[in-house]
Design goal:
This protein is an alpha/beta fold and 267 residues long. It is 46% helix and 15% strand. It has a single domain, classed as Divalent-metal-dependent TIM barrel enzymes (TIM Barrel). Helix 2 packs parallel to helix 4, helix 4 crosses helix 5 and helix 6 runs parallel beside helix 8. The longest helix is centred in the last third of the chain and has 24 residues. The two termini are 14 Å apart. The model has no long low-confidence stretch (mean pLDDT 96).
Length: 267
C-alpha cells in the first residue's frame, strides 16, 4: 500500500513547529519537514520536532533545506573549498533528519544552464550522498524547473552512471519544465523513492486534489504497477479558503484514490 503524506511548507510562513503541531492533530500521518532557518537545525529544535511527532504518533519521511537555491554555489562551482564548506553545512540537515527519524534530505542540485557535465554532476551528488549516509540518511535529487534536474534525459543518464542515487518526483515541476510526466517517471524508474504531488489543469500547475483535471487514478495505477513503495506527499501553495481544511480535503481524496487503486490491484 502506497501511503500519503504532506509537507509543512504548505502552511508557510507559519513557524515550522507550530505548523507541524496544527497538522498533527488532523488526519495527516507522514511529514516532510521544511526547515526554514538555521536555528531550526539545532539539536534542541530537532528534539522539539521529534517530541511532536512521537506525541501524536506521526512519522517524518523527509527533510527539505531552505538553502536549496545556494546549492549551485556550494556544490557545483569550480571552487573546491566552497564544496567542502557546503558539505560541512549540509551535515546539519543530515544530522537533523537522522534525529527526527527521516530517511531523506531533498536536493535540487545545480542550475539548468550551468554547463556542467552529467558525469561531474553525479560525481558531486555521490560525494554529498556519502556525507549523508554517515547519519543514516540519503539525499534524493528532485526535478525542479530552474535546475539541471528538470530534464528527463539528464535523469536517465545519471541513473546509468550512478545507480545508487535516488530521486524525488515533483509533479508540478515536471509540468513547469514542459516535460512529459510519464517520461520523467520512466527516467527515474525504480530509483524513485519520494513524490511531491499536486493536481493541475492547463492554467495552473499546483491545485488541490480534485480541482484540476489530472487522471490521478492513472498515476496511482502506474506507481503500483511499477512497485513504488514510497510516500506520495502533498505539496500545495497559495490556496483559497481555510488552508488546513483545503489540505485535509486533498489529503483525504488522495488517500482514498490510492486505497481504491490498491484494491483493484489485489483483485
Amino acid at each position: 500500500m502506497i501511503d500519503v503524506g504532506i509537507s509543512t511548507a504548505c502552511l508557510f510562513p507559519g513557524n515550522t513547529e507550530t505548523v507541524l503541531e496544527d497538522m498533527a492533530v488532523h488526519i495527516f500521518d507522514n511529514f516532510e519537514i521544511f526547515v526554514n532557518s538555521d536555528c531550526e537545525l539545532s539539536d534542541s529544535f530537532a528534539e522539539k520536532i521529534l517530541g511532536i511527532l512521537i506525541q501524536n504518533h506521526k512519522k517524518a519521511i523527509s527533510v527539505h533545506p531552505f538553502t536549496s537555491e545556494l546549492e549551485p554555489s556550494y556544490f557545483f562551482s569550480d571552487y573546491s573549498r566552497r564544496f567542502d564548506d557546503g558539505c560541512i553545512y549540509y551535515q546539519k540537515y543530515f544530522k537533523f533528519a537522522g534525529k527526527i527519524g527521516a530517511k531523506y534530505v531533498i536536493i535540487h542540485g545545480d542550475q539548468k544552464n550551468s554547463g556542467i557535465s552529467v558525469e561531474e554532476f553525479g560525481k558531486r551528488l555521490m560525494r554529498l550522498n556519502w556525507e549523508a549516509q554517515a547519519y543514516h540518511v540519503e539525499i534524493l535529487l528532485e526535478n525542479v524547473e530552474r535546475c539541471f534536474s528538470r530534464d528527463a534525459d539528464v535523469i536517465t543518464r545519471l541513473r546509468h552512471l550512478y545507480p545508487e542515487l535516488g530521486y524525488t518526483l515533483d509533479v508540478k515541476q515536471v509540468l513547469r519544465s514542459s516535460m512529459d510526466l510519464y517520461k520523467m517517471l520512466e527516467a527515474m524508474g525504480d530509483s524513485l523513492k519520494h513524490v511531491h504531488f499536486s493536481d493541475h489543469n492547463s492554467n495552473n500547475t499546483c491545485l488541490p486534489v480534485g480541482l484540476g483535471d489530472m487522471d490521478i487514478e492513472e498515476f496511482a495505477n502506474y506507481l503500483y504497477a511499477h512497485h513504488y513503495s514510497g510516500v506520495v506527499l502533498l505539496e500545495l501553495y497559495g490556496n483559497d479558503g481555510e488552508p488546513i481544511k483545503v489540505l485535509a480535503d486533498s489529503y483525504h481524496k488522495l488517500k482514498n484514490i490510492f486505497i481504491k487503486c490498491n484494491r483493484k490491484k489485489d483483485v
